[in-house]
Amino acid sequence: MAAFHYKAATSSGEILEGERRAEHEANVVEWLHSQGYIPIRIEEATAGGRGRSRQGVGKGLLGRKKTVRQNDVAVVTGELATLLRAGLPLDRAFSTLIEIAEEGPVRELLTRLQEQVRGGASLAEAMESQGEAFSPLYISMIRAGEAGGALDVILGRLAEFMERSKALKNAVTSALIYPAILVGVAGLSVIILLAFVVPQFQQLFEDAGKALPLATQIVIAAGDLLQNYWWALLLGLLAVLLLLRYQLQVPERRYRWDGWLLRLPLAGDLIAKLEMARLSRTLSTLLRNGVPLLSALAIIKDTLGNRVMAEALNEVADELRQGHGMADPLLETGLFPKMAVQMIKVGEETGQLEDMLGQVAETYDVEVESTIKRLLALLEPVLILSLGVIIAGIIMSILVAILSVNELAF
């Protein structure tokens, strides 16, 4: 059995710490409940006495950071939901979270929220005053939860929503790690060949006094450029990246760029599915928590990464104001996957739009993962083949030149 370090709160708000041996974390949670305690954080103990945080109840606040990350917000959301469901008042729940939080931005954020709530502000108003720590989506759901008297339920749904969004993002990021490593290794191999290997043969070719093949001349020129003007190449690359960043900050150019991405044969389909999954999950969560559909669409515009698809929601909102449904305007834009739109239409007709949007999100989460796997299955051999062709071309250009020098010697 493993040892687990736990933190729990009593009904009066007192914090208890200790260790208990159990087969699973769930056994510790069950034992704490049987003792009348509220589990806050459970970590598997290591040789040093503490362990890494676990998902769910046992997931704790991270260490000192300069800013409050969304991971921290998700952890605080889940822990606050746990305390409120256990019956603690909001002020006592904040005091408990502040007590167990480590020194740093998270504790400071919780302290500011508690002070404003004590001063008479609602939780949504207090969060809205914290700058970018809480998104408009988050604040709108908290406001709806306070109005409906179900803040603990809303916080639980928010925590679940943030975990699922994080899982999708991590799946995409993890899938791109191997191609990124492959491209990096390929680039490094070419740089080593051009900057260090090719120059070793340059003096030999000059002493031979024979005109070199065109391919060899190109390779040697590339090696000279890399050796003598590497700083200019780096500056040029930096300038291109800065220019691209500037272009993406201009709304009109960002709009054109996003439209071009959607028209790409494979990447465009992936982007549309990814944005559809994000839109469906966010809209389902907002509607379940009492946010009106038009208000929800206005919030979702800020959560979509593709500006073309985000702006298309304006047309959908206009149709809704005229009394039409949501599915047909989505279909008319030609940007959203047809299967998803048909599922939304069924949800509207049956009066189960929130549930159907949740199913759309689940469906397209799977679609995104499978599409990424298919793209990687196609991309990996292309990258490997391209790397082989480039390196083989460099080596062959040198071998051809060496053979021509040997012919001259005989």
Automatic annotation (TrEMBL):
Q: What keywords were assigned to this record?
A: Cell inner membrane, Cell membrane, Membrane, Transmembrane, Transmembrane helix
In terms of Pfam families, this protein maps to: T2SSF (PF00482)
GO cellular component annotations of the record:
plasma membrane
InterPro entries linked to this entry: GspF/PilC, T2SS_GspF_dom, T2SS_GspF_sf
Membrane-crossing ranges are 175-198, 229-246, 382-405
Q: Where in the cell is it found?
A: Cell inner membrane
Please provide the Gene Ontology terms (biological process) for this protein.
Answer: protein secretion by the type II secretion system
How does the entry describe its membrane topology? Multi-pass membrane protein
Annotated Type II secretion system protein GspF domain residues = 79-199, 280-400
- Give the record's family classification: Belongs to the GSP F family.
Protein name, as recorded: Type II secretion system F family protein
Organism of derivation? Nitrosococcus wardiae
Highest lineage ranks of the organism? Answer: Bacteria, Pseudomonadati, Pseudomonadota, Gammaproteobacteria, Chromatiales
